[in-house]
Amino acid sequence: MIRPPKLLHCAIGLAVAARLLLPLPAQGFSIGEEQQLGEQLLYAVRAEFNLLDDPDISQYVNGLGRQVLEAAGPQYFNYHFFVVKNDQFNAFAAPSGLIFFNTGLIKAMKSEDQLVSVMAHEVGHVVSRHIASRMAKQTKVTALSMLCALASLAAGNPALTQGLLTSSIAAGASAGLSFSREDEEQADRVGFDLLRSMGRNPAEMEEMMKVMRRVARYSSEQLPPYLLTHPNPEDRLHYVQSLLERHKNELADSRKNTADNFAFLRFKYRVLAQTLEPEAMRNACAAVIASSKDPQEIGLARYGLALLSASELDFSNAVNMMEQVRQDCPNREILDIDLAVLQIEAGQAGRALDLLRRAHQRNPSDTYAAFHLARALEKTGDLAGAERLQLENAKTLPDYPQVYYELGRIKSRQGQIGTSNFYLAKNYLYRGRMPYAKQYLERAKKDQTVPLALREEAKAILERLKKLEDAS
Fold this sequence. Notes:
The protein is mainly α. Helices cover 71% and strands 4% of the residues. Among the domains are: 5-256, no CATH class; 399-472. It has 27 helices and 5 strands. The strands form 2 sheets. A 3-stranded mixed beta sheet has the order 2-4-3, sandwiched between helices. Strands 1-5 form a two-stranded antiparallel ribbon. Helix 3 packs across helix 8 (143-155) and helix 4 packs across helix 11. The longest helix is centred in the last third of the chain and has 20 residues, at 452-471.
């Protein structure tokens, strides 16, 4: 179920964010200024956006993003791709490569190429510096006003911006996120060329445009959120169709290729399991099982039911169903990790260890496997091994709060309460709960039982927060 209060309580959270976000110069909008604004937004995004903060979901969507960026060439920014828990049909880009996909948009997609087509379009806006050119026309741009505008888009409530900030600043920032017809054509052209260079099927961009047009036609009362920033779906559809016609001979083979959608469908079911009501999820999976003749589609629908059982705390049934999914979809190694995660939740961490160790050995950079291997080690009593692995995970996932929560648990079990408080502080920091973060950081900074390096880190974080507050 979508719970908008996470975003609608923004007025309270932004009172804190306002103290941490710096204003930018009114004149121009350089690459350096865009980088600065992006860094400030990234710091506050986790507090104000209802993100699906799952290592597996993040690994998948950012992995696809890296493929798009490799095709795009060298970039000025470090891109971050997020999935926002909201049923509105929307995707949007923010300054310096922060790109957001609402779960309502993902629900409407049918293939990985469709997801990549939207991703390539949003990257097209960033590389073409459309946001920067519009921000340069605003009287004043602050990270706070931009965060309000983004929260408005993420919540699917175009009035939220004006409700949070009654001045013209927030409205101006929201307008800065809206693109002209020329901007949209350029982003579509860039996205189209990126799909071609990646060997993806650009016709999937046309399919997404048709979905957008259908959503626009049947939205009677409220303007669909994506039209706030991505206007003219009919014109965009015609433009993409003209590109397809122009390159039809070149693209003939790519249209015949059927991409393996296992990874996308698994990702989609993981998203749906965290957003749909249980009965709606159950009915959706049952409908696929009853109607499909594709063993993989049926297997992944059972995968969705396994996730549903887990969400209902029926872990024994979830484990049994995941075993069946592994038979339906053989030689899919990631399902070993999925099974192991369910075994941990079912109190079978010892059984999960072998699966997770093998997965980690196959691919040490797989953050999904590494995070849950550390959890299994902790639950089976290997606290030292769990700590070593979670410290490595913290390097790979530096802004993932759950890693620090797990480290705090480990240090608490080892009787090192001061160090536990330090990691809990970082957990609060990356959850955007600043008062708690500062409280625990102050404790850790003064606690002589905490290693010197961590005390120095606590001090440095507090000084950074103070500097941001004073500068605003």
